[in-house]
Recover the amino acids of this structure.
């Protein structure tokens, strides 16, 4: 087994951000949790997706109205600057999700990684946008990510920072195994993400407990299958009456949960993770160079949707 | 939600097959379990990997000695014919794993699907061979799949049989997300596999409980992520003193376990599975055509082992 390489890691779960909450008040909550993370000897903090506002894709409105109220035109901006300052002063890096409005007027569901000097060292724009673009009048709420955001153009960045290689994604991306493979094939040792996951599925009467169940099993299996640590931060609880799951976790490359939130409110969870545990899995069961067989994986890039079975004649194999 | 489409499904877990056990006696056990599956109204039975012999890759020997004793030169052969006959008479299809010696003298870790008329309709040769090819003298036992078997050349067949589309794999394949994607991209609704999983990891002191844990979370996450049912059959218990895990399961596309073995012996588990549950997941969260983004999955086929992070400059995304 490899020699221990420790990293103090924190996940800062957020309780609800209501429509009436101002960004400055939200950022104050983020700074408070940064201080707790620092006191618990963390060097990196993971915040949720769309951390600065309510999960606005649940509301029908024009794109212009959404941009005006919920998107960031620059980063850091005056409202968010106190978080950058506090993190730099504490010598802590962080991951933060927000709605990005670009110079060219494009809209993305975005996350950044900021290093311990306050520099933005990575930007990720969400690849797998769930939900719909049309107005579902009969639904109890909307899930308009396909209306308000363009599909991300960054791929899955993996960056070297804080003595590790860190990959990033957002929310629904975590359910797609391709997400994690794109990171582990770049040597990622730690994957970080934020999420806003409504408890109710508006598309079919999915039992509510499955939302937590599928969240946890996909993170656990993905951490194991990619020999990575995973840290996932929820925004959760009732935002103006609409419930989202908590379940923020730090998952080990063994697929075991090393830390998990126990509230649906602002809550910091931490673990002093040993990055070398991933090395052990990478050397043996998931020694990719020794075991992977891309010649049998071609359909993954050749097809978008599912198609017919490939022709198969068992008599050809005798 | 889609209209219910039921299939009576059985997994026939096997207890140990010792070195002294003859194939005819083993096949008798398989036939016994087939009868129980029939009595419980199953239409398809999943048997383990290398179901006809002990898990011989744990023993160091020459290839010739292994072929002589543990490989099948034809299928069905006289020893296995009683299973084919019993299944045909019962109108039941089955999946069976065995060591295959081909006409050209090649060796594969193979599984077949036999339809309810007794016809071999699919053959799969294992892609992801775990273990090693050298003699590890200091190890308590060997794991010589890389010595005794060639890497499979069939890809992942998906075939239409018994009113469903069925994909197949073997043992270690289940830990690789590419396996399941290769099936679901061909429209598989049910994935079947057998396995022999030693409780002890000879490569590093992995806690023994993790072998069951990672087995279950990967099957659960893979069923969910691919909107498939999965049926997995162990050969388990102490084979001549070497322990392998049980944990045979039928997993739903929700990632929930619908049936699980409770012994480490011959044991039939069944579920009357509703294939339409997969349709529901395929229509919504895992509507591949709507959500997948192969332009960001290229590394999966471009790289075998992990490499350096791709260049990333966050300032290019403004």
């Amino acid at each position: 087994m490899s020699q221990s390489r420790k990293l103090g890691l924190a996940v800062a779960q957020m309780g609800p951000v209501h429509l009436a909450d101002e960004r400055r008040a939200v950022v104050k909550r983020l700074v408070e949790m940064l201080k707790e993370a620092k006191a618990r000897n963390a060097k990196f903090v993971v915040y949720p997706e769309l951390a600065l506002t309510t999960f606005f894709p649940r509301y029908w409105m024009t794109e212009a109205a959404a941009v005006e109220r919920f998107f960031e035109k620059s980063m850091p901006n005056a409202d968010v600057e106190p978080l950058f300052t506090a993190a730099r002063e504490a010598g802590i890096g962080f991951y933060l999700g927000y709605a990005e409005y670009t110079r060219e007027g494009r809209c993305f569901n975005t996350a950044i990684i900021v290093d311990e000097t306050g520099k933005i060292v990575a930007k990720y724009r969400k690849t797998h946008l769930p939900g719909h673009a049309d107005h579902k009048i009969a639904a109890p709420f909307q899930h308009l990510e396909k209306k308000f955001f363009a599909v991300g153009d960054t791929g899955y960045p993996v960056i070297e920072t804080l003595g590790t290689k860190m990959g990033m994604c957002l929310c629904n991306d975590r359910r797609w195994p391709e997400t994690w493979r794109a990171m582990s094939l770049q040597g990622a040792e730690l994957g970080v993400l934020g999420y806003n996951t409504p408890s109710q599925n508006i598309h079919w009467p999915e039992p509510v407990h499955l939302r937590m169940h599928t969240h946890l099993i996909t993170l656990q299996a993905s951490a194991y299958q990619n020999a990575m640590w995973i840290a996932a931060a929820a925004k959760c609880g009732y935002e103006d009456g609409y419930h989202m799951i908590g379940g923020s976790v730090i998952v080990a490359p063994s697929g075991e949960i090393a830390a998990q939130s126990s509230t649906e409110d602002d809550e910091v969870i931490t673990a002093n993770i040993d990055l070398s545990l991933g090395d052990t899995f990478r050397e043996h069961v998931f020694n990719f160079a020794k075991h992977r067989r891309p010649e049998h994986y071609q359909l993954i890039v050749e097809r978008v949707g599912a198609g017919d079975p490939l022709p198969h004649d068992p008599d050809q194999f005798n």
User: Anything to note?
Assistant: The radius of gyration of chain B is 20 Å.
